[in-house]
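Input sequence (332 aa), recorded before submission:
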Amino acid sequence: MTDQPPRKAEGLSRRKAWFFSSGDRPDLSALFAGGEARRQFRRYWITDNLWNAAYLLGHYSLKLLPMDAVSAFGAWLGRFAIPRFHKVADRRARETIRALRPDLSEAECEAIVIENQKAQGRIMTEFSVVTRIAKHPERITYEGLELIDEAVRAGPTIIVGLHLGNWEIGPVILQKINLSPHTFYVPPAERAKAWIAERVRRTTGVQFLPPGFQGVRPALKILQKGGTVSAFCDEGFRGVIRGPFFGRPPHMEGNIALIIRLARMTNATICPWYNTRTEGFRFTARALEPIRLPPEEKPGERFLEDMLQLNAAIEPVVRAHLDQWYFLDSSL
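Predicted structure, token format:
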């Protein structure tokens, strides 16, 4: 949480609406157009499809293995691939650790880097087996899930997740309280990855909102009817961390601002929660105390305080689990 005194909400720049676009599919005319059009055609229909085939082959091959073997392979893969093929991300992760944890020694920072690389690899490979965990409840320990259940029963609720542990098991966990919220999401750029992600998430019970600004109006309607939506407010965008604030001035370019606006417009309760990996393919899911925004005399007068309140709930959790945080390789 920033030590700077809150500024008035009017002093903040307005959030820029981000509209999702899946990109154009070049037709045959692009092949004969030459130049950049031809390169796009080759990239879309040849290069990308070779990678798509590799992703699909890997995904379905891993399904043949036991869950723990898939997770362990992912840990090895992350540790092998990231330092060799993702050098910029590796450098940024180290810089972010030093900025957020200046109290740590070089050896302690290096240990976080190594564990984070393993965690990144596990996330990728576990996509192939994540739905199986529903049949193995002993692999998940629950703490405070009743807090979310009570909030949902009382009225409109925004469930706020964090990219820790393996967030893809979130829908499986929420099914324990018979909950399948609508969620914001951004599909991966690679077509095969996007297809795999959507297929796996629908299997776990996810109900999708349209990505980008297109999803705001449907989310608002769901909350106005007393329903539940889910969003993540820790995020990196184009290599830069947008949330939590980590001591930087609050801003409106992120989901923290979006969640606060939706909560104020619908009087929704905000329920932060997350899961952390304990060992291998086993997790502990924890719900934090729900946030019920205090009344305000004038609309928007508490906007900064509201954002800081939500940030104060999630930032310590992320700081405590940098070794498992997905956006560690983004810059502050």
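Checked by second reader. Residues 1-10 have pLDDT under 50 and may be disordered.
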